[in-house]
Amino acid sequence: MYGSPHDHCDRVVPGFVRAATQGAPLRVDGAEHMFDFTHIDDVARGLMALVNRLDRDAEPSPPIHFVSGIGTTLGELAELVIALAGASSQITEAPPRDYDVARFRGDPARAAALLGWRTRTTLRQGLSQLISDLREEAAQ
User: Fold this and answer.
1) pLDDT of 58 over the 80 cut
2) For residue 39, what is the DSSP state?
3) Which terminal residue of the chain has fewer beta carbons within 10 Å of its beta carbon, N or C?
4) What is the structure's pLDDT at 52?
5) Is 7 in contact with 13 (CB distance < 8 Å)?
6) How many CA atoms does the CB half-sphere of 73 hold within 13 Å?
7) Residues near 77 by Cβ (< 8 Å), separated by ≥ 6?
8) Lowest-confidence pick of 10-24, 55-69, 84-98, 117-131
9) CATH classification number, 12-135, choose in 3.90.25.10, 3.10.450.350, 3.40.50.2300, 3.20.20.190
10) What is the distance between the alpha carbons of residues 93 and 107, in angstroms, rounded to a whole number?
11) Where would I find the beta strands (DSSP E) of 18-129?
């Protein structure tokens, strides 16, 4: 999950966005590692849909993942952030860290079936908004 300008700066998305908006290099530990990035607004909508379902139906829900189902490598993410920020930042590739998950791409099928939920915010849209939000915050 990503999308808040108040997210921890050590997380990959805000870290990349902050670096790119400042023209700093982006360090990519494991450029081929793949993740499923879901915008915070989509997750919030999913949680509200789940609350509404539980309010209507006392039956507990099985585990539900609010994910896009789309995998993006860290290398692709870094390139996209730099392009969207219009930055001249360089990418520095480093070996993957031994404690990181190498690949995660979720399956949104259960959220769609039980809640009618799907992501609405593309990665490009969410990153563009986060870049704008961080720049606005920095200007204040």
Assistant:
1) no
2) B
3) C
4) 93
5) yes
6) 11
7) 12, 13, 16, 35, 37, 123
8) 55-69
9) 3.90.25.10
10) 29
11) 26-29, 34-35, 72-73, 91-94
Domain residue spans of the chain: 12-135
Cα(53)–Cα(73) distance, rounded to whole angstroms? 34
Residue that the structure tokens 């870290």 belong to: 15
Whole-model pTM above 0.85?
yes
Place of tokens 């480093």: 94
Q: Is 81 helix (H, G, I), strand (E, B) or coil?
A: helix
Q: Give Cα 99 distance to the centre of its chain.
A: 19
Tens of pLDDT along 97-113? 888 889 999 999 999 99
Measure CA 25 to chain center. Answer: 20
Cβ contacts of residue 26 below 8 Å, gap of 6+?
15, 16, 19, 20, 78, 81, 82, 89, 90, 91, 92
- 125: its two tokens: 């849209």
Instruction: Say which DSSP state 86 is in.
Output: T
Place of tokens 């921890």: 8
- Nearest CA to 69 out of 101, 102, 104, 43 is that of 104
